[in-house]
């Protein structure tokens, strides 16, 4: 039976189902702790498999692809904040003042790591460059985001950021990747022959991140504390920013002559904002009374970027000229 054209792909349907399940049956307490551990393990396995699959030559080429990294960092830490400020006449009337500060806060955050890399992998983009860029963005954000937040909005909170995030990145992402690289000589061929397994881990890690993140928001009173009009305003604000960013990252990368694989990496690494980094930063940088409302746009933007980019990733993956995974060119055309 032919699949109806209007029906989304299976991964997008699974994302919608996960959001519905998290809204009706959110995990909490010890169950939430267990899901958090499962998610961390899935992400670690994902990076271990990527480490075992990718050649060292490809990794070196990805790390030295400076034009791509400079462009992504410019999108993340320059373009996003400028859009948040420039769109104030349009966005501010749609939400409360605190929620508009939340829009500015999410614009100052670094990019996601695991979802950006997983989506790049699904779309058959430049995975080594995505790993280097997304990890670098997360590390730079520890120093750059507080400065941007101070410049873009006034807060009553004081303090300095903890460096626990660096340790988490090293332990959860970099260490499994290095171990996978070491094990590549023994299992590299086995992993390369099982692309379906890697795709399952890619998509499964995203579904787990969506479920655990949305469950936490629901348990925290997301639907009880947000009126329909306010929620609609936040959705419009997030959709406007995400849509503009996706268009800019796509067409700028093409105008600068980057390859299709590099374009994919630029789009998925340059359009993301990290919920995992944003929540701890909000607790440190913002007063406790303001943090709840200010992080709400981030939680919604996080879910929106995952679902929209999942659709884009599957469209990229279906392109006729797609290269085999892991063998994408890593230099601009």
TrEMBL record:
<feature type="transmembrane region" description="Helical">
    <location>
        <begin position="66"/>
        <end position="87"/>
    </location>
</feature>
<keyword id="KW-0472">Membrane</keyword>
<keyword id="KW-1133">Transmembrane helix</keyword>
<feature type="transmembrane region" description="Helical">
    <location>
        <begin position="229"/>
        <end position="252"/>
    </location>
</feature>
<protein>
    <recommendedName>
        <fullName>Sodium Bile acid symporter family protein</fullName>
    </recommendedName>
</protein>
<feature type="transmembrane region" description="Helical">
    <location>
        <begin position="37"/>
        <end position="54"/>
    </location>
</feature>
<feature type="transmembrane region" description="Helical">
    <location>
        <begin position="281"/>
        <end position="301"/>
    </location>
</feature>
<feature type="transmembrane region" description="Helical">
    <location>
        <begin position="12"/>
        <end position="31"/>
    </location>
</feature>
<feature type="transmembrane region" description="Helical">
    <location>
        <begin position="165"/>
        <end position="183"/>
    </location>
</feature>
<feature type="transmembrane region" description="Helical">
    <location>
        <begin position="99"/>
        <end position="119"/>
    </location>
</feature>
<dbReference type="InterPro" id="IPR038770">
    <property type="entry name" value="Na+/solute_symporter_sf"/>
</dbReference>
<keyword id="KW-0812">Transmembrane</keyword>
<dbReference type="GO" id="GO:0005886">
    <property type="term" value="C:plasma membrane"/>
</dbReference>
<dbReference type="Pfam" id="PF13593">
    <property type="entry name" value="SBF_like"/>
</dbReference>
<feature type="transmembrane region" description="Helical">
    <location>
        <begin position="131"/>
        <end position="153"/>
    </location>
</feature>
<dbReference type="InterPro" id="IPR016833">
    <property type="entry name" value="Put_Na-Bile_cotransptr"/>
</dbReference>
<feature type="transmembrane region" description="Helical">
    <location>
        <begin position="204"/>
        <end position="223"/>
    </location>
</feature>
């Amino acid at each position: 039976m032919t699949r109806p054209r209007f029906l989304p792909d299976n991964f997008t349907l699974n994302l919608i189902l996960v959001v519905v399940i998290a809204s009706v049956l959110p995990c909490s307490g010890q169950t939430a702790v267990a899901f958090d551990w499962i998610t961390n393990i899935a992400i670690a396995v994902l990076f271990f498999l990527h480490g075992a699959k990718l050649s060292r030559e490809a990794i070196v080429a990805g790390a030295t692809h400076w034009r791509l990294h400079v462009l992504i960092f410019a999108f993340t830490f320059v373009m996003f904040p400028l859009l948040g400020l420039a769109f104030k006449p349009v966005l501010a009337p749609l939400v409360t003042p605190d929620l508009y500060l939340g829009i500015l806060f999410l614009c100052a955050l670094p990019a996601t790591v695991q979802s950006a890399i997983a989506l790049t992998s699904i779309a058959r983009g430049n995975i080594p460059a995505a790993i280097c860029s997304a990890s670098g963005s997360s590390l730079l954000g520890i120093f750059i985001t507080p400065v941007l937040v101070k410049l873009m909005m006034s807060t009553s909170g004081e303090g300095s950021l903890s460096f626990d995030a660096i340790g988490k990145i090293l332990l959860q992402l970099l260490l499994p990747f290095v171990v996978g690289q070491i094990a590549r000589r023994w299992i590299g061929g086995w992993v390369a022959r099982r692309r379906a397994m890697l795709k399952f881990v890619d998509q499964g890690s995203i579904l787990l991140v969506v479920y655990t993140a949305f469950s936490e928001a629901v348990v925290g009173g997301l639907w009880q504390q947000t009126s329909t009009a306010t929620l609609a305003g936040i959705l419009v604000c997030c959709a406007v920013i995400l849509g503009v960013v996706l268009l800019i990252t796509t067409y700028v990368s093409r105008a600068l002559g980057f390859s299709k694989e590099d374009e994919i990496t630029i789009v998925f690494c340059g359009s993301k904002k990290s919920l995992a980094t944003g929540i701890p930063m909000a607790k440190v940088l913002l007063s406790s009374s303001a943090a709840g409302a200010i992080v709400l746009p981030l939680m919604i933007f996080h879910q929106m970027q995952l679902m929209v980019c999942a659709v884009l990733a599957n469209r990229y993956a279906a392109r006729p000229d797609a290269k085999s995974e892991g063998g994408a060119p890593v230099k601009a055309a």
